[in-house]
Amino acid sequence: MKKYTHLFFDLDHTLWDYDQNSADTLKQLYKKYQLAKITNFSLDELIRCFNEINEGLWVKFHLGEISKDEIRRSRFNLVFKLLGGYSFIFTDEFSEEYIRECPTKGHLIPGALELLDYLSGNYELHIITNGFEDIQHIKLSTTGLDHFFDQIFISGLVGYRKPEKEIFTHALNITKALSSTSLMIGDSLESDIVGAKSVPMDQVYFNPKRTAHNEKVTHEIQKLLQLKSFL
Q1: Contacts for 227 with CB less than 8 Å, ≥ 6 apart
Q2: DSSP assignment of 186-202, as one string?
Q3: In angstroms, rounded to a whole number, what is the distance separating the alpha carbons of residues 53 and 56?
Q4: Of 159, 171, 227, 231, nearest to 201 (Cα)?
Q5: What is the pTM of this model?
Q6: 52-64 pLDDT, tens per residue?
Q7: How many CB atoms lie within 10 A of CB 153?
Q8: Contact 136, 154 (CB under 8 A)
Q9: CATH architecture of the region 18-104
């Protein structure tokens, strides 16, 4: 088995449980803004619609079609419009509160802490993320993940986003890692896997939903702890 020295992790959906933390935040805001009284959509419908809109916007971001500011400005306007054409007067406040509260939630992908404990000391661990730079560090500190990682590369600070080759080469240069002994672990074929291939760097596609695809990957796993079988 190939010997790796540096492991680069994505954060959202790979270590930090975005879906659960987002759902908890939306539940909190749904109650605070009394949406059950002033709208005719349920909490479950809000969560489902937000996930659909948000995922689509992030795909566009990875493809370079929109900016992160556009995601922040538009997603809840699109959500409320899709849920029945609501012109919710508190949309901006709702959006800002979501951004402020969500990163303080502490749910991790199952196995994340056990895996990082297992890897720590045997590999140099790093993060490469496209998330908002003003909240990614909050997620890491709130969950206690920050002490596991030597370097954290956030697209807005680096100046490049995954899957652009430059963010990966920048990470390799800063960490003095060789692409031949480095491994990228992430849940996105479009940003994590395709980006790592451009270096080229071996990749692990974290695919818990067993989504069908035609991308050739170095490794594919459905549970994080499966990494222990070859690391």
Answers
A1: 115, 119, 185, 204, 221
A2: ES-IIIIIHHHHTTT-E
A3: 5
A4: 171
A5: 0.93
A6: 999 999 889 888 8
A7: 22
A8: yes
A9: Orthogonal Bundle (1.10)
